[in-house]
Amino acid sequence: MSTSEHSRSAATVTMRDVAKAAGVSVTTVSHVVNEKPGVRIGEEARRRVHEAVAELGYRTNALAKTLSEGSSRFIGLVADAIATTPFAGQIIQGAQDQAWKHGYVLLVANTDGNRAAEDEAIAMMLEHQVRGILYSTWYHREIQVPDALHQTDTVLVDCFARGSGLPALVPDEEQGGRTAAEELLAAGHRRIAFINTTTPSPARTGRLAGYRSALEAAGIAFDESLVFPAAPEQKGGYAAAPRLLASGATAVFCHNDRVAMGLYDGLREHGLRVPDDIAVIGFDNQEVISAHLSPPLSTVALPHYELGAAGVRLLIGAEPSSEPEVRRIACPPVRRDSI
Amino acid sequence: MSTSEHSRSAATVTMRDVAKAAGVSVTTVSHVVNEKPGVRIGEEARRRVHEAVAELGYRTNALAKTLSEGSSRFIGLVADAIATTPFAGQIIQGAQDQAWKHGYVLLVANTDGNRAAEDEAIAMMLEHQVRGILYSTWYHREIQVPDALHQTDTVLVDCFARGSGLPALVPDEEQGGRTAAEELLAAGHRRIAFINTTTPSPARTGRLAGYRSALEAAGIAFDESLVFPAAPEQKGGYAAAPRLLASGATAVFCHNDRVAMGLYDGLREHGLRVPDDIAVIGFDNQEVISAHLSPPLSTVALPHYELGAAGVRLLIGAEPSSEPEVRRIACPPVRRDSI
Predict the structure, then answer these.
(1) Measured between CB atoms, does B261 come within 8 Å of chain A?
(2) CB B83 to CB A93 under 8 A?
(3) Which pTM value belongs to this model?
(4) Which of the residues A254, A264, A281, A289 has an alpha carbon 20 to 30 A from that of A248?
(5) Which chain A positions have a beta carbon within 8 Å of B18's beta carbon?
(6) pLDDT tens digits, residue range B40-84?
């Protein structure tokens, strides 16, 4: 991967830059440079646009521009679950903001996890001579890299492929788990349960390791009987309530916000109040849940926006590509009213 | 807008089509047509690829292809809330599926509702000579059309602009409201409350009109004291519970799933069970909520996928553009366990 700095050069001047320089609207610039028939533009505005075009070296046709330069200003982004979670959207937004900042445009393709759609998406991106591809998944996992990705620069986002040689950006699950436990410790809790997922994943092992290290740092011995395996959704949290209550824990870290949502239901049925009777922290910051539970749920945020943004910076060399193949992005706490 | 049928012509043959015809992988096609140095491809596979390229009229460079034809195979999609709801993602997925089917590629831009980002997105799309633009909002509303949209074919998706002359696709709010009330009527309820939003919107007036017409068709007089205004979120539903209980209603239609989520909390605090003590139906089918409440919520789906798909068909003329400027798309019921 190139590590050269891409500054905004003449090749990346947009219609918007011309509009700004000429003090006119983008529409006016478009009318002038495209010599739109039947549109009346004042002589003065027309002159200013032509001057700005000349000064900035703007070329009217982005595609012709690309051809003459031999590589395009496109960055491909392959995403797998754009229609079912807001997480893919956050990756896209982060990637788009950085792409635009550096004069690139995103070609987004949603694959719904379907390999044929993925092949088609990657082939389309290669045909458009993309600068490179961000390959992203909506939850953190190990993947098999599609062969075609090796034909261009690729950065893996929210996933990784051991031994592939491809750089990857993932959430720092261990730090996130540690942060969750620390939030509960800071409120004075010492007997802290963890409802962890039953699904093998980097989130399962990483968050558990973080929970253990936070307890250890606080001088609290790890007690395996306080770790409850549960399906990583509402039903799992609901079903865990009786065991949690029997454990005597005063606080609980839930594997994700959906587990916490189900746990709220279970606790309510037993007549317990959050946080007075038991403090709860989630994970993910899936806002439609966490911000709107009663009481609103304190949680730890998955850094999807930053994963997308850092992915573009790494791809275009705006951020040095340092040694570790897998780079971890911090998961910050989000404080609401459940602790 | 053109109404001609765009069939898959030689101009839209993709690398994937060549791979299929030659019986090889997309990667192999790419290696052969790009004459990738240092890659070993068998003579037989190489020959089959060259034959398929010749037979299908495939051209290796999508951008050169576009230039030679004078207009591009891009469709622009402007979306306003891709990072905060799954709704924009569903519009994108529907649009992408139709675009790919007809040999087009989507240029997606998220604007976060920001006018400067919107101007930049539209200018970028015009520079890439898009076939046209879908301009979409994540909730149904009237908009002011950005000037630049008049420079290309535009279809409004999940929004409309009276007097703009631009075709628009929106959810059929009235039919949706009627469907919600009919689901409750079909279960034998006669005293049906409606927790409606306080926010003026097509959803507010449309769903109310649908609720009234369903009651009327069932021979039930409209009772204004059964319509409760509430903020269209969890807090609004929660706060409406006492008034709802005092009304003697046996069933309630909630303006959206978030209202129903809050109402569930309120009903539980009063010791009432859904659906035994009171039946509930939501609206939106925001799955992370509706599918996972306890009990899972019956609701009416917003047709975001179909809005995106129909938008592309209308834009490229694959669907006749009939008279009404605003076309309504049906909102189907989703049956779960709350009725």
Answers:
(1) yes
(2) yes
(3) 0.80
(4) A289
(5) none
(6) 788 888 888 888 887 887 765 555 555 555 567 889 999 988 877
